[in-house]
């Protein structure tokens, strides 16, 4: 027998060597099936930073009989203090700084007896009041506070509201939590289970689900892919409304929609940042980072999971990603596009689409800002990573809902029409 200790050590060494060789190989396979780092001209540090949590509580100003609460998903109220018998200071802080000025707030308020009171908004210096309050009373829809009840706008904003024993919701924008979003998703899937496949792209930092709808009729093999994203930035609700009208329109089961889903596949992510939404964040995710700057290195679980899901879907189905629309809100309606067009899957899509929007929406002029992305956002990831058309689809903070509905609907119909015509 020559099986000595020495041989077994050699065997062990060999095993180690093989293991060491195979381990990075396995990792590389993972990285390949998952994500490639995409080059952007300007890098942004997206390593997690700490965020501060609100103390969930009921604020009781017993001597003036006024109460407020932040004990619900999507709330933001950091402190609540009496200034005088009819005026209360409402302290609102972001999750961390520096941060874009999306001064979001949302809280319940009520009083022992019916009265008019004044709310004086206090933000950390350098941040400003941005959103005119939306009010929700029990059994009523959302209403924007009347202009005459905004006593002072801008810094140190003061508003007048009517309160009584029944709590009302005062919110920077209409509230739509992750739960409400999942409920809406279920209505979309219901009755369409044969072609609307509800899946999960994984979990957020704080373990919330990131839902995705994988939509195609018949086989997904070889079908070009359109990606629809929204709510990387929690308070950007008007962009989310446009997203809802857009998605509902492509699922209307018209002749056009039927033909569209026979030729194309859609991956729809209706809530990319569920932690930020439910924690009432101004802009960032649970890792304290602007997710729409993390599309190069994918430090955050939300961006990493969504990008991996898109990449794996493309690899499994064998179809190219041709278009990515990412819905947001800003001060006015605007489409941010890339200047580079020729090498993309659809070099003429943008001018065709915008022309048809102007033709089909009365008195509408497309506001376009054309620039290849510099910082790592989705628009750039679609271009640099996939040679796809990438567009940041922005709706104004105060664009009326009927106009959002029209833009959302027409943009969906015209996208389907152009894509169907292009495929013939
Ligand atoms: Zn945004």
In terms of topology, how is this protein built?
Blueprint (H helix, E strand, L loop, with lengths): L4 H29 L24 E4 L4 E4 L9 E6 L2 E5 L14 E6 L3 E8 L11 E3 L5 E3 L5 E3 L5 E6 L4 E4 L6 H12 L6 E8 L5 E7 L9 E6 L6 H14 L4 H9 L1 E5 L4 H5 L22 H17 L3 E10 L3 E4 L11 H12 L7 E3 L7 H9 L2 E8 L4 H22 L2
Parallel strand pairs: 4-6, 14-15, 14-16, 16-19, 17-18
Antiparallel strand pairs: 1-2, 2-5, 3-4, 5-11, 6-10, 7-8, 7-11, 9-10, 12-13, 13-15, 17-19
Helix pairs in contact: 3-9, 4-9, 7-9
Strand % is 15-25%
Q: Can you write the helix and strand succession as a string?
A: HEEEEEEEEEEEHEEEHHEHHEEHEHEH
Number of domains: 2
CATH class of the largest domain: Alpha Beta
Walk across the major sheet and give the strand order: 12-13-15-14-16-19-17-18
Rough outline: globular
In the CATH classification, which architecture of the largest domain applies? 3-Layer(aba) Sandwich
Query: How many β-strand runs?
Result: 19
Q: Which compounds are bound in this model?
A: zinc ion
Distance between the termini: 74 Å
Largest sheet: 8 strands, mixed
Count of helices? 9
């Amino acid at each position: 027998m020559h099986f000595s200790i020495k041989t077994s050590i050699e065997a062990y060494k060999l095993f180690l060597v093989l293991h060491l060789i195979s381990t990075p190989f396995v990792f590389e396979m993972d990285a390949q099936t998952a994500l490639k780092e995409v080059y952007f001209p300007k890098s942004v540090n997206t390593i997690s930073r700490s965020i501060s949590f609100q103390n969930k509580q009921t604020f009781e100003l017993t001597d003036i009989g006024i109460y407020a609460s932040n004990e619900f998903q999507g709330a933001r109220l950091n402190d609540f203090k009496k200034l005088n018998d009819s005026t209360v200071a409402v302290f609102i802080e972001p999750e961390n700084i520096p941060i874009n000025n999306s001064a979001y707030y949302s809280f319940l308020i009520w009083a022992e007896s019916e009265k008019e009171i004044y709310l004086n908004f206090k933000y950390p210096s350098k941040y400003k009041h941005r959103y005119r309050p939306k009010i929700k009373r029990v059994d009523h829809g959302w209403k924007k506070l009347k202009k005459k009840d905004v006593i002072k706008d801008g810094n140190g904003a003061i508003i007048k509201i009517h309160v009584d024993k029944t709590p009302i919701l005062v919110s920077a924008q209409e509230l739509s939590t992750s739960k409400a979003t999942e409920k809406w998703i279920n209505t979309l899937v219901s009755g369409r289970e044969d072609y609307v496949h509800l899946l999960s792209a994984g979990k957020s930092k704080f373990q919330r689900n990131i839902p995705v709808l994988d939509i195609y009729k018949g086989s997904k093999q070889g079908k070009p892919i359109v990606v629809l994203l929204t709510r990387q930035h929690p308070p950007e609700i008007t962009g989310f409304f446009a997203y809802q009208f857009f998605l509902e329109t492509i699922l209307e089961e018209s002749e056009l929609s039927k033909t569209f889903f026979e030729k194309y596949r859609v991956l729809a992510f209706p809530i990319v940042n569920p932690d930020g939404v439910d924690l009432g964040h101004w802009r960032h995710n649970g890792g304290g980072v602007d997710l729409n700057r993390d599309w190069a290195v994918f430090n955050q679980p939300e961006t990493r999971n969504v990008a991996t899901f898109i990449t794996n879907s493309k690899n499994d189905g064998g179809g190219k990603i041709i278009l990515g629309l990412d819905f947001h809100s800003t001060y006015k309606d605007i489409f941010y596009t890339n200047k580079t067009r020729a090498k993309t899957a659809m070099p003429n899509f943008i001018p065709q689409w915008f022309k048809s929007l102007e033709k089909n929406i009365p008195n509408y002029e497309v506001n376009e800002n054309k620039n290849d992305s510099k910082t790592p956002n989705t628009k750039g990831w679609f271009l640099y990573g996939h040679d796809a058309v990438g567009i940041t689809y922005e709706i104004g903070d105060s664009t009326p809902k009927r106009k959002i509905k029209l833009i959302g609907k027409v943009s969906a119909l015209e996208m389907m029409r152009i894509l169907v015509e292009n495929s013939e």
